[in-house]
Amino acid sequence: MPDDLPPQPASGAALHFRALESLYASAPINGLFESRLEIVGEGHSRIRFTVSPDMYHAAHAAHGTIYFKMLDDAAFYAANSLVTDRFLLTTAFNLHFTKPVRGGTVIAEGRWISGKRRVFVAEAHLTDEEGEEIGRGTGTFMRSHIALSSLAGYRTRG
Predict the structure, then answer these.
(1) Could you tell me the CATH superfamily of domain 12-150?
(2) What does the domain layout of the chain look like in residue ranges?
């Protein structure tokens, strides 16, 4: 495409994805973490975050709450990328720790597995800077009564 053409307006899906990214960034809890959400495509999310010593448990590795939060968020946003009208809620989450992490950039990758009406299932995995898996989880998510459009952080303007 030539460089002199004006940018094309974002599609409805792309606007929804950017609005979900904005929603993630607006959540007060995410001010505690150096992290960034990217909705890669329908049913696929990615969160890059940095593990630092202030997240350690007593044995000097990242506390499990960090694993849970990032796995849950990645799976949640993968599922919510399929839903344009309602905020989803986590109803259950099962996680497995496979390796401790002491620092650096970690990637949480979320993917939708099944469900498109009321209940959604999505999985996520964490990889460290060497590309090794450090954790994985599967969650179920349910449509809430909360309209996405009612949430201040969900901004769909292009």
Answers:
(1) Hotdog Thioesterase (3.10.129.10)
(2) 12-150
Q: Do residues 88 and 141 make contact, with C-beta atoms less than 8 angstroms apart?
A: yes
Confidence class for position 137, pLDDT limits 50, 70, 90: very high
Residue 87: half-sphere exposure toward Cβ, Cα within 13 Å: 15
pTM score, whole prediction: 0.91
> How distant, in Å, are the alpha carbons of 33, 72, 106 from that of 27?
11, 14, 20
- CA dist 1 → 4, 5, 6, 15, 34 (Å): 9, 8, 10, 22, 35
Closest CA relative to residue 64, chosen from 92, 32, 96: 96
Per-residue pLDDT at 153 exceeds 80: yes
As given in the structure block, the two tokens for residue 17 are 């994805």
| Count of CB atoms situated within 10 Å of the CB of 58 | 6
What is the rounded distance in angstroms from the CA atom of residue 155 to the CA atom of residue 31? 18
